[in-house]
Design a protein that fits this description.
The structure is a homohexamer of 323-residue chains.
Chain A (H helix, E strand, L loop, with lengths): L10 E5 L4 H11 L6 E5 L5 E5 L7 E5 L6 H17 L4 E6 L18 H12 L3 E5 L14 E4 L2 H11 L4 E5 L5 H11 L3 E9 L3 E7 L6 E9 L3 H12 L5 E8 L5 H7 L4 E5 L13 E4 L2 H13 L3 H7 L5
Chain lengths: 323, 323, 323, 323, 323, 323
């Protein structure tokens, strides 16, 4: 099986509306055209899908990050899985490079949902055989799926990017204590120390930040998995500057950028912001100092490995990105 | 069991965002306050729900027609069911007076979804024990649910309304042949004959209407389950007038009214339009000649019967509406 | 994949007792012998099955319409699926050209079953991976299945047959309003107008028929999906003759013919009766003016396409029947 | 909970067509009338059921041994469960005093079904919450059910009957080695030794019997769980007489009596035949020397215990039959 | 429902072998005797359970932390659930105050299991209706369960204990960065700052510790969810002392104490060690400076609330521990 | 398909800790190396598995009899299945040559588990697609599995061994009446008569044995499926010798040998003891007069047939063992 075996019918790639550019990158890197799927939204808001070509017996990968518009894209994904399943595909992999509702992953208050588990169940109930995601907010979400799948991490790409930059006196900073362990690991990859910005609510509503660890006079790289409203990351940058750091860099995988996040980051004075395109990097999100690592070629290699029954771990280790 | 037994904990009513007015009607008719559920939509569009009171062991009815915004309301319903289930409710009934995606109920073309079945599976997977709906587009959709439930029909309320009006020389007309059988039954309730407006595509794209049955000089009542864009019903009204009918009435259960439907109906010159409030009758939907039958008191009686283990059939037969 | 790929083991065809002649037609058209399955009914009525050859890893199609004896044939089908599954088949498709209990597809009265859903669940629980049927009474029944499958329609074969006959002044008639929409579509295929025979219960028990639409002096073709007792179709023929039509033709897919249906049709004076052999056309069912369209070669082509992962839609469009 | 608690709605008893007399016995013993269920078999053999009264929230026991006509009765049971489930019963217990297909409980040849497991799955899929049976052919069949249930044994009633008769010099004989262990236990209850009649195929097809153990000059009681065709039991009786025994008695729980079994038993010269009415004891089955132990009162007591949440084991131990 | 309703049969408490002392505490606090369950381990190591009293319809709580011997206790729990389910309990709650395999909660390396999800599935498959746990290693594990349940936190009891002690100049320290966020929250409860001990692998195998945050001259309280081998906590204590702290306290919920942990802690020179008895505090685990908070009375209150359908959140808020 | 087809990826063999020697035999006979799986048991007794090579898309056979240490080996098997499933294997077969808890296969007392069904469910829930076992204590246990599988019997190997020995005047003896039918069939294979040793409890606790059938002056071969503590078999040997038999032989498939069984058998004076290595034949189990039939080559042939989609029945019939 050195060269892999074709255990299902031919590969088929279908893109939902979530991130057509990423789907195109994957399609081009694989040399496999995107399957034609006609998606209609009727006047009554009902989504309707008709595949224009047969997928019978094929090994279908549906590429659909559940990014904005979130609830629409989730419904579109589920309906597309149902369509492909009833069209008698051989195997269906739901490729969700961004997985919404990942922060709703536990009951940390009474009477709240665990929506991430619900999402995982929905994907399986609709008929997916496998899932593929990139950097889930918590790795445990893998265990929410009853179907097998692959969670990939783009952090090795980010760390390699920064290793090549060779920034002197670098300290890696986690802006959220929930990310402390991953930040430590990321720092170890860069051979850098780690520090933390701690956020704490004092009394009723005012919130104060403090820095734990040595940062003065250093270049700092704030790392996180996702930038949503950008308040945490921008607040950390401001606080770090107060503490006398030199340049401030930011890197993260998921550029959600809701609620004026772009403006907030623009005003935070980062030297460079590095992220990936698990979500579309629309013109409104683009900042002059932003570097986007396009994940298409990388995801293409992994999809190819999954399709041909090759080791994904080996494929990842051997992957050489070009920035 | 003549007076019913309490087999679950106390009744709890929770309203989603779909139709809060209908939920209030039900709550008032039952004398049971609506349960406090805090629904938040974060900047990243994620829906978050927290119940403000315990529902442990309670017999919970979640009132949420999946009307506009359709995909949002579906997701809110599913997340609410998950919330209630994980909060250890005794029994959960998803009350969906309007059930979206009901027209996607079969594969009548290759490679299309059966989204109505998908919806039914989602509701069950999220954790509902029972469902309750009003006039599904096709009765077979009941069979899409693996959980038991009650499909109620508001047509007896509509036919009683018109019986009381005693319109002379009335002919019931179905504007869609898929509704032919139900129109015939509705006509029989009114002791009236039935006729049909047939729509046929000629050659490429022009569409012509023809009337099958005797309508000339009669008062006609066009009946359907739902008005979506209103083109079918308005078109039928115009065609019938060409055929020399007297007054034209319209009645239907579900007032979806997408894409300028209100204006289309306004211009079609109906003597009276009668519908129900399974969906909110927003100011934009309201027409001067429109009569809305409020289903709240009726649904309240049925929910009470289900809660107390009483016969729903008997409850429906004994129900006396007041218009 | 232009020529299809073998994604499962070799094709295996197994016939139950339902319609061995149809199974033979399929087997001959495919050039694949019927698998030897020994079916024994013990003195205690228990059905016992032993496959005489291995089906390990094979792509098995079990051909079993659930026609008379209905309950026996259903049980035989389920037990055969269990047998094939436990014998480690690669994939199992339940081919049910006639699907019994299809009229029990909704709760239109209180406290009745939805037996068609039950049947769909039984087939899946027994272990079928896919289903194949012909012209379900309601298309929605597809959605009762949790497994994927193909519902095929023999109406294109029937309409082609009548197009070739070129009967002048033809009107298509639906004898049951529940079939109105399908009759309209069938009429459109023939470029003919459509009319209806309406049945209505007056007062207690007498039932009267009326014709809606223009039929006087025309040749009429009554179309339906199934002839069960034949009373509806024979009654329509008598009524139409009273209305002064010329020749009366009948066509339908499923020849159930229970309770003297053959005699009823014989006395109804049809010019020609056209049906298919989804159920066995036993000598008692055969009438002198009956034309049977044998579905074996057609089903064979579809089974071959499913087995080889080819588009079923394309296969159907390219199929050229010879009558 | 000394007197039990009502944890479901009121008890409801529904009888299928399998054994209406037994259902009547249970109903009378409980003082609970049989629920009115209208069972119709249409001309096309489809079974249709409509409950005439509400079962909403009730604790329903459906009494239906799957005796002759076996496949019909199984289908009727499954459809009845579906009906009761969709009618929103509180709990459903399938009471199957005789469980067909119990001998198809393992793959002892290649490519055969395990139909007993299939039956158990069907009962659960249709919607039963619990099962109740009497003396399964193999106790392991309990484990085929994914739902909980009670397997009851009528052998203590049979042994008590014979203890009261005080037959001298009694030897208990198993006519089938698969029943050896149960026969030994039955013998121990009577304080009697045990012997076996062994059946062995010699060469091609002739079958010879031999007796293992001491029987000469003794009274013998042949015991088995079921008499189907009666050949085994009649053959054993003939062989035992050849070996010089005195009187020959027979006892068994299930009187299937297929294929002239009654005549075969009549000619075998038993002094007395004792059985139960898990299946209807029709006039054709009745023999002059037959004693039938009516299980209705006994089952009534157990159903009552299950309904009230009382110990079934205690109920059985305290039960005093009157013959 | 102010005083709660009894929606299931009476409460029944059953203890496995995992922590009989804790079960006894619960039983005493509730005034409900432990149900008699006879647990036998045969010579062939097979576990066999027989309940000595009926649990029919009862609301059963099985108390079994999956502590050492871990794999034995898991199997015993699963078999006990099966026993109780087949004995027709009304509802089954698996009370697992310590949940083994919780660290195997994600695939952070290729080709490893997610055993915590497997455990959750096992518990549900065996037949539990609900679960109850205390301080899961990761809150997300709640989402591994398809059944509802309650995860309780003993940290409020620990923080209240230390609030009452009023230790001056206290800094809370997380010895593991994965616990950083929870440590911060714990610190906030005590109004204390937080610091971290970071562990990093340098090059091949040597591991170095560093302290992030201000600790010099302070009293420190190291907090964690579990002490397994004790190396992390002991190492942190040594490192902190090197950094010039005053007294070192430790607190944690789960006292696993494998592989000489007790000795390691003894040598680490803690002023006081505070933990709970989710696992048995055997004589080998007991240290002179150890304070054990007994959870029995607290769990009893929660079990009572669950049984009576009362709010668990409210019960927890109103609970007043006495140390 | 004469030579079989490769329908899954390449064959992969993985051995758990249960019986590495048997796994090695299979591996050598197939010429397929054992897959490297690193199994770690942490200090806290948690089992951790990491596969050292990819199994993506492979046809994986996990070889793990659930022999001593029983509960450990079961857990290890389940965790290994989870590991392999999440590593995206193409198909997983759980090969359990010895299946623990098989005697817990029915509720023959109130309130006991059916652990064998629980085990079957666990194996399927963990993710196995198929099972393979050797001589289950009761064939019905096959029906406990919802997944398909193969139960193989080693008795034909044992009977062939004894046929080749040509022992004169041989009588086959069942030491347990539950094994009576299988013993009869085994005797028929050898052309020998059958006899039984009956065990009966008299009064309170003393247990007496009696022989049923002719054994005096004969050579006897006691046959059983498993030797656990060895008391039954040793007791039978003593009793038979009292009855004046000549040589006493023993054969059985599963050598569990708990609680000094080896010594018990050694003292029972068998001429020869023949068994298989479904469980490891450790030095403590080995007796001088013991012949072990190694099942590796035989299982290898069957695994190969399953992998290649060939008939297992034919493979078994054509197998020629060499002793």
């Amino acid at each position: 099986m050195e060269n892999g075996v074709k255990i299902y019918g031919e590969l088929a790639l279908i893109s939902g509306s979530g991130n057509p550019e990423l789907a195109r990158e994957i399609s081009e890197a694989l040399g496999v055209p995107l399957h034609k799927a006609k998606i209609t939204v009727f006047a009554n808001e009902n989504i309707f899908i008709q595949l224009q070509e047969s997928v019978r017996a094929r090994d279908v990968f549906i590429i659909q990050p559940t990014c904005s518009p979130v609830n629409y894209n989730i419904m579109e994904l589920l309906i597309m899985i149902d369509t492909v399943r009833r069209a008698s595909a051989g195997r269906i992999t739901a490729v969700m490079p961004f997985f919404a509702y990942a922060r709703s992953d536990k009951k940390d208050k009474p009477r709240v949902p665990i929506t991430a588990r619900l999402m995982a169940d929905m994907v399986a109930t609709a008929g997916a055989d496998r899932f593929m995601t990139v950097d889930l907010h918590a790795g445990q979400i893998q265990g929410f799926f009853s179907i097998p799948g692959d969670e990939l991490s783009a952090f090795p790409l980010l760390s390699q990017y920064f290793r090549e930059k060779q920034i002197p006196d670098l300290v890696v900073v986690a802006a959220d204590l929930g990310f402390a362990k991953k930040a430590r690991n990321f720092a170890a990859e860069l051979g850098a120390p780690v520090a933390f910005v701690e956020k704490r609510r004092d009394g009723s509503c005012t919130e104060s930040l403090s820095v734990i660890g040595e940062v003065k006079g250093k270049n700092v790289l704030i790392v996180d998995d996702e930038v949503d409203r950008g308040t945490t990351m921008a607040g950390a940058a401001h606080k770090l500057r107060q503490e006398g750091v030199k340049d401030v860099y930011a890197c993260f995988v998921h550029a959600t950028f809701s609620d004026n996040a772009a403006q907030r980051l623009a005003e935070a004075g980062f030297k460079e912001i590095v992220c990936t395109n698990t979500q579309p990097i629309t013109p409104e999100k683009r900042l002059p100092n932003m570097t986007v690592i396009h994940l298409g070629p990388w995801l293409a290699r992994i999809i190819d490995a999954v399709h041909r029954g090759l080791s994904v771990g080996k494929t990842l280790r051997e992957y050489k990105p070009s920035f």
